[in-house]
Write a structure and sequence with these properties.
alpha/beta, Rossmann fold, 268 residues
Length: 268
């Protein structure tokens, strides 16, 4: 017996996990942010992408649209509160609302012996990695409340949580602070049907990773810290972000989700 199953275009659209959703992705000009924006769009979301670099954002929008997706770009500094407000305004005016926000923009900050790090540099890193995320959420949450639900996602790190690394005190402190912010917002907005989670990557092959590990020897060392003996690709991390953004994670909130290739448990 032969059974013929006909799948229409509408059926395929409904199979996508983010159909009908509107998402903001910051730090979208490269790395995890770029990969996530593309994946969100391929899963049916209309995406607003943000970063400092205008040319890279325009290229990303063109690539998404060439693949049949919908996207809009706005360049700016995430540390500027007016930029956080403008991203949400663009999402609502261009696409009708906001359902998902992936606050991914960040900086490594000044590296080196902690007693030699300047106060100004420490404050700058905290501002970019923690305060700017709070400012993003400050305007994203009301937009999600207007939709009646939402998923807010932050990029934290295993650094300062399950693993300590020397020479990155400001980075680790800022990323640790994001976990506290995640938990507080999750409790505050959970009754209003908004989920808040953080993703904690291990090493990911991004420009930031290559800046921190500039030699083949350093990269081999970092890969060896992982139980999988390799680092992640941005696309692998994007799939974990997609999970948190989608209804697949409908009962997850306040979570510091470790996606680190086993670095946290590896002793070999």
């Amino acid at each position: 017996m032969h059974i013929c199953i006909s799948i229409t275009t509408n059926m395929l659209a409904n199979m996508k996990r983010l159909t009908g959703k509107v998402a903001i992705v910051t730090g979208a000009s490269s790395g995890i942010g770029e990969a996530t924006a593309k994946l969100f769009a391929s899963e049916g979301a209309q995406v607003v992408v943000g970063a400092r670099r205008t040319a890279e954002l325009n290229r990303l929008v063109a690539e998404i649209e060439a693949s049949g997706g919908k996207a809009a770009a706005l360049s700016g500094d995430v540390c500027d509160e007016s930029y956080a407000r403008a991203l949400v305004h663009l999402a609502e005016t261009a696409f009708g609302g906001l359902d998902i926000a992936f606050n991914n923009a960040g900086t490594l900050g000044e590296m080196g012996p902690s007693i030699e790090v300047s106060a100004a540099s420490f404050i700058e890193t905290i501002t970019t990695n923690l305060i700017a995320v709070f400012l993003g959420a400050k305007y994203q949450l009301p937009a999600m409340l207007r939709r009646g639900a939402g998923s807010l996602i932050f990029t934290s790190s295993i650094a300062g949580h399950t693993v300590g690394f020397p020479g990155v005190a400001s980075y680790s402190a800022s990323k640790s602070g994001l976990i506290g912010l995640t938990q507080s917002l999750a409790v505050e907005f959970g009754p209003k049907n908004i989920r808040v989670n953080a993703i904690l990557p291990g090493a990911v092959d991004t420009p930031l990773y290559r800046q921190m590990n500039a030699t083949p020897e350093a990269q081999n060392f970092i890969a060896g810290l992982h139980a999988l003996k390799r680092v992640s690709s941005p696309e692998e991390l994007a799939r974990s972000v997609l999970y948190l953004a989608s209804d697949d994670a409908s009962f997850m909130t306040g979570t510091a989700m470790v996606v680190d290739g086993g670095t946290s448990i590896n002793r070999t």
